[in-house]
Amino acid sequence: MKSLLNVKNLSVHFMLEEITVKAVDRASIEVKENEVLTLIGESGSGKSVLGMAILKLLPSNIKIGGRIDFNGFNLLELPEEKMKDIRGQEIAWVPQNPSSSLNPVLKVGFQIAEPMEVHLGYGRKTAWQKAIDLLRFFDIRPPEKRAKQYPHQYSGGMRQRALVAMGTSTRPKLIIADEPTKGVDATKKIRVIELFRKIRNNHKPSLLIITHDLPFAEKLADRVAVMYCGQVVEVAKAETFFNSPLHPYSKALLESLPSKGLKPIKGLSPSMIDPPKGCRFRPRCDYATDKCFEEPPFNGQVRCWLYA
Ligand SMILES: Nc1ncnc2c1ncn2[C@@H]1O[C@H](COP(=O)(O)OP(=O)(O)OP(=O)(O)O)[C@@H](O)[C@H]1O
Ligand code: NI
Fold first, then answer.
1. What is the pTM of this model?
2. Locate the ABC transporter domain: which residues (predicted)?
3. What is the CATH number of the domain that holds 19?
């Protein structure tokens, strides 16, 4: 499969008054055409920052390094003008909180139709009709009536599906979804899974799904990338990963699942201001040796001296 997105050695540092938060540190991920990559890891490991960096949605007090190649361009070098087109048409961002991401004073149908008018050049009527088709596709019924309603008239699940409809209306090549199961109860989670499967079968985009919900990731992923303290520590095929993870952190993460014994990971997440030297998981790792005070190598799959 051809590569669509290639994030190489990306670093994102928040420059605060007295401190620097190294939220992402030389992270590399690749998303191929028509594949689903899930980015997993504990809260605060830098997943959302990495996702937002791709769309350049971060505040200005950051220092950013590395490159983000998308479809032949390094996004970090693209002017804001061009980034707007990319955001409107080629890469969709489905944010974490559907409630605050829809405009409360605009009809949902309009919010779905507008990007198609702006970016695909559709006339108002055609765009409205397409918005209704999309609402139907995403099971928001009756679509004609729902299109004329405002976000507060929708349930939480419907708002999330409407946001996805909005993000996918221009048939982007890449969809980045941040924690799509956050706040979704177990019975409704299956619908979110179906939703992404449907998008995938329909217009065959690539998906980057950011989540700390491992069972959810397992149901959708072709490949998995694991983040720990701002770094990507393992990348693997989903099936291989969920059966036999390599990195000690990945192993611990899977063992902490209810289905695998609910064994909590010992110790605390390290600081991103002053991360541990060498391997960042070393202070919590059962396999650590003196070697681990040195920066672990990355052989393309796992960042750990055990596999060097
Ligand atoms: N605007 C900001 N200014 C300073 N630090 C920030 C900012 N945004 C995020 N951070 C820090 O960057 C780090 C990574 O945050 P991020 O939101 O990417 O984590 P995450 O892996 O997405 O976690 P979660 O699963 O909780 O969403 C955290 O330490 C966070 O406090
Ligand atoms: Ni996040």
1. 0.94
2. 7-254
3. 3.40.50.300
